[in-house]
Amino acid sequence: MADLEPPSSPLSDDDVRWLMVRTARSLAHLWARLIRPGIRAGKPPIYPMCARDVQRGEPWLEAVSPNTSVSGVVNAVLLAQGLLIDDAVAPRPPDRRRVCLIVQHVSCGALVWSDCTLRIARRLGVTLAATPRDETNGGSLHCDIFRLDGTYAEAARAEANPPAPCHAR
Length: 169
Known about the structure:
The protein is mainly α. The chain has helices at residues 13-35, 70-88, 96-105, 115-124, 132-136, 144-148, 152-160. The protein has one domain.
């Protein structure tokens, strides 16, 4: 994340796309560190790992609650990677605020902005609300999974026209 210092001039759309790809690459390294089996002294091998069990000083996880499961963090990392790459290759100009929200997603619902998100926001020239909840109105990026897997239209139709409830006869 060292290459995410404040810009000397505004970033072009292509610069933002390149930043998104580099951020996704950094998340790939985080993913590798998270899934690497670690030896935790005094814990049984089936003990579920939490964020507190990950090596201290991991910059991506500084805002994550210590009790968050590592599997939850891994899922957040994978979704963030997919969304960053998907948005980077989209024909539309990148949404700089959305990039910040995608990076914040790695923090798994943290109540404060992560340092990584704040650095990206500064780099992109985005002013964020006081808290992530204020910025998103309590929303989440989980619905974007449907967009990534190509079933967004199908899921939207299903939500608009829910099936009739089944009644016992």
